[in-house]
Design brief:
Length: about 130
């Protein structure tokens, strides 16, 4: 995906200049981890520990946790000290499986698993199109 000003402003538009400088200077991403589920593909996710409320980012269709919005949001949470979690749906990105073998029902199960098993405390969910 091209690095456009419009995409950057999606997240950066609401930040102060100080926070924008802090985010652009940080280059460390969290490590990819894998959740093993009985009879289901492993889900790849990134998790940042921090204070509540945490943020859960749900990538849009054919989008992955390594996208610009997800990474910018992770850096924002890191700079503010909030917990953050994002993941790749079954068959997408770094998760196991082939995308064509899954549908919206399977991805709903992925979201419910993430919310039930991988996060703690109050969360703010972010959807992307």
């Amino acid at each position: 995906m091209a690095d456009t000003t419009e995409e950057k402003s999606f997240v950066f538009g609401v930040l102060s200049k100080r926070h924008q400088r802090q985010l652009s200077s940080v280059q460390h991403k969290t490590t990819i981890q894998y959740a093993t589920r009985p009879d289901l593909p492993k889900l790849a996710y990134r998790k940042l520990k921090g204070k509540s409320p945490g943020v859960v980012f749900l990538p849009g269709f054919a989008s992955v946790m390594g996208g610009q919005k997800a990474e910018a949001l992770e850096e924002l949470c890191k700079s503010l000290g909030h917990s953050y979690l994002t993941f790749d749906y079954s068959g997408c990105g770094s998760s196991e499986g082939e995308m064509g073998n899954y549908n919206i029902g399977a991805w709903k199960k992925d979201v419910l698993y993430v919310l039930d098993e991988l996060v703690e405390g109050p969360q703010v969910s972010g959807l992307t199109a």
